[in-house]
Amino acid sequence: MKKYSKHVFFTLLFLLAFYSTFSNVTNLSVTDFDEWLAAKFNSASLDGSALEDKNQELDEKSLNVKKAKQRYVSSSVIEAVQTLEDSIDLTQYSSHEVTATGYTAGIESTGKTPEHPNYGITFSGVNVKRDLYSTIAADLDLFPIGTVLFIPGYGYGVVADIGGAIKGNKLDLYFPTVEEVYDQWGKKTIDVYVIEKGSGELTEEDLEKLNQNEALQVFRSQMKQ
C-alpha cells in the first residue's frame, strides 16, 4: 500500500510538471482547452459570431507562441555570429607550415622613422595595412608578391613585402604597433593556406578591392577586438 501511494504521488508530480511546461510553452490553460472543446462540440448552440470570437482568441494565443519562438531563434542566431575562420572551408586549399612573426613599419622592425620618405611603404609599393586583408612579408621564391594566404588567428594576408630574415618557410605579419605584435601574436609555428598565388605585382587598387569585399564586411568588427 505504501509503495502504491508513493507511485501515485510521483505520477501526480509528473502530470503537474507536464501541465506547467505545456501551459508555459503554448500559453494555453486547461480552461482554454475546455472552452475550445465546448465550442467544437456545442457549435450548434453558439451563434456564428460567438464561435468565431472564441476561435480567434485561441488562434491569437497560438500566434503569440510562434512569434516568441521566432524571436528566440533570431536572438540565438545573432549571438552565434561566425568568426572569419569558421566561414572558410580550408580543406580545399594547400597548406604550408611556417614560422610567423609580427612586425611594424617602425624603426624597431624596418630601421625607418616616420620622417623617412619610404616609411610604411612595402617592397611592392603599397602602404602597409592591417585590415580584412593585411600586408605581410614572405620569401618571394615561395610566395610571390600578391599571393593571398589565410593565416589562422590573423586572417587574410597578402604578400606585399620582404625582409632580410624572411627566408624559406617564414612570414612577417604586419601590425600597426609594437604592443599589438606582442599582445596579439609574438611568434608562432602554424599551417597557412594558399588562397591564391600572386602574379608578382600588387597595387593599392588591388588591395582596396579585396578589403571592400561585401561578403566579408560582417567580420570587420572582429579586427578591432
From TrEMBL:
Region forming the signal peptide: 1-25
GO cellular component: outer membrane
GO MF, one annotated term: hydrolase activity, hydrolyzing O-glycosyl compounds
Lineage top rank: taxon: Bacteria
Residue ranges of coiled coil: none
GO biological process: peptidoglycan turnover
Protein keywords: Signal
A Pfam cross-reference name: 3D
3D domain mapped to chain residues: 134-195
Protein name per its UniProtKB record: 3D domain-containing protein
Taxonomic lineage from the root: Bacteria, Bacillati, Bacillota, Bacilli, Bacillales
